[in-house]
Design goal:
The protein is mainly alpha-helical. The chain has one domain. Helices cover 60% and strands 0% of the residues. The protein is built from two helices and no strands. Helix 1 packs antiparallel against helix 2. The longest helix is centred in the last third of the chain and has 20 residues. It is elongated and about 35 Å long. The mean pLDDT is 90.
Length: 55
């Protein structure tokens, strides 16, 4: 999965979750922190579309 692109399927979503787990302690403003921010945004967008909770 390439960073800064949309997650396209559940396989990419699972890969993103695994990747973000590895960098939970990333320092903001570092390359690792930027990767964390990108992954978090993509995961949230995918969740909003595919994993909506009943409100």
């Amino acid at each position: 999965m390439t960073i800064n692109t949309a997650i396209k399927n559940d396989q990419e979503y699972e890969a993103a979750l695994e990747a973000i787990e590895q960098i939970l302690e990333a320092v903001p403003g570092t390359p690792e922190g930027d990767k964390f921010d990108s992954l978090a945004k993509m995961i949230a967008e995918y969740d909003d579309i595919h994993h909506k909770l009943n409100e």
